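Summary: Need help interpreting a holo structure output

Steps to reproduce:
1. Submit the protein chain below together with the SMILES for pyridoxal-5'-phosphate.
2. Request a joint structure prediction with the ligand placed.
3. Inspect the structure token block that comes back.

Expected: a single structure record containing both the chain and the bound molecule.
Actual: see attached output.

Input attached:
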Amino acid sequence: MRAKSSIKDLALAHMQALHAYVPGKQPRDRDWIKLNTNENPYPPSPAVAEALANLSGDQLRKYPSPISGELRKAVAESFTLPNENWAFVGNGSDEILNLLMRTFCDPERGGGYMVPSYSLYPVLLSIKNAKQIAVRYDDTFVLPIEKIADCGANIFFLTSPNAPTGVGIPTESIRNLAAAFDGVLVVDEAYGAFASENALSLVEEIPNLCVTRTLSKSHSLAGMRIGFLLGNPEMVQLLDKVRDSYNVNVASQAAGLAAISDPEYYNGLVDNIIRTREKFSKQWQFMGWKTYPSESNFLFIRPADSTGTIGPKVALSLFDFLREHKILVRYFGTDPLTDSFLRISVGSDSEMLTLSETIDQWLKSA
Ligand SMILES: Cc1ncc(COP(=O)(O)O)c(C=O)c1O
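--- attached output ---
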């Protein structure tokens, strides 16, 4: 028998070298306070559980609507777009980002993104072996419009509000960027529901601009994997050619439709989260901790220990202390703009109280 090559050797060279995306920890036991992946601390609308319970065996037996037809209609209506031709539904917005990379990026035509922002973009580009164009923020986190416009990307992914800082980008800056940039501009609004402004009004105005949204954060449905793209019908038609035939399962389509149909419930949740966010933002600023103004459902804070010292060691010390007390937050240690900070998702009142008390303990112990 001939000697066989190993699976690793058979894989494409760029796949062998790939550094996979590292998601936040998802512990299975329930006694953790999870403030590390920006999930919503509140349950989804009761209408979602009802829609899932009402799914019949017949619906499960058959393939789902390939285009998530009813949901597209509801999404277009909910975001006041002309009709369903302007909406695309994906298996989470991550799938949509992936489809956009597939459609617009290769080794010559690059995908651009801000650093720091969502760390999935470079991973998706690496999987495609596509050209990567990273544009850096400085610590003001003001959008460097000229640098982006001149970066040569075929498609640019702009996270607004940004992650992990939570800083929102003014719609006027996005409009100016779209005017100056010759490529596709994707505004990733995963946290758009918590922001004071958004780029939705630009979708009809600017053909090369599209917005992605998710039900994972504002609609408490991270487990169902439902994301949207709102964009020109030409873009939607392209993505329809590239996606899997049945990319969103029947349960997710039903849950998404029920969620979108209960805006009153979700407006209440979002208001609650914004209230809690503002309360803790003020509290940490009062303690002298640098806290970026957040337009999202998380806060990016730079802890100082009891002697007033700041820096990566201090941030890591608090991160470890919280983990020892079964509270998970997120630390981004690979960039000088983020390595002295922690990203903390806004939790329920009781979770935030426990967090606050644990931080007090750390201050006394450090
Ligand atoms: C900026 C950003 N975009 C997209 C996503 C992915 O969202 P989804 O759950 O819809 O795939 C996330 C998730 O954390 C995110 O932070």
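--- end attachment ---

Reviewer comment: The two ends are 64 Å apart (CA to CA). The chain has a mean pLDDT of 96.
Status: needs-info
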